[in-house]
Predict the 3D structure of the following.
Amino acid sequence: MNKNIKLFKFYFNFKKNIIILIKKIYTPQIIKKYFIKNKIIKLHLGCGGRVFDGWLNCDINLQADCYLDLNKTLLFKNNSVDYIYSEHVLEHFSYNQCKKILQECYRVLKPCGIIRTAMPSLDFYLENMFNNENQEIKDFIAWHKENFQELKDLPNNMNSMINFIIGSCGHKYVYTKKTFLDLLNQLDFKNVSNVELGELENNLMNRNNNDIKNHLLQTAVFEAEK
């Protein structure tokens, strides 16, 4: 039985890697075709399993329209993109890696082009550090403990959650609102602001209402203009 499972996993990973390799090879053509077909150019960076209609969904996985490694130079010309969106992506990079990604976004955006990004807010965790008796926070902690093995044996409080959000989930740098707004301003973006959750953030496919609620509760959204 174990041998069959190992063979299945090997076959699945081999097939996945072949598909990703083919997608990587054809990505320049996929990008060219999207630019020809669409007058308004919208990039969804680090899309994961969330694919938006009308957007060029970019990532290094199977679901993406094209293969795009955010640690490398973006495969787009200067001043060629109208909108860029990412959701719970930039915290998976170090501060300096994120800075380089944002510099690339600035380069490819058209003048007055818009970048919008959502991410977990460190402010939310710090502000609720001693708010463990609040029912909404209790539910938030309980949901995470049910869904993440790393939290199973930890205390039911926001102290555990802060350690989790910083040290787990592949996060490398979790931002306060001020730190991220300062970074955008430092890179010469204009009209930098912390904005309300919108349609893009609420479009969480394949999640139940409780998942969506707890995901969005911790989320901060930022917009800026080139």
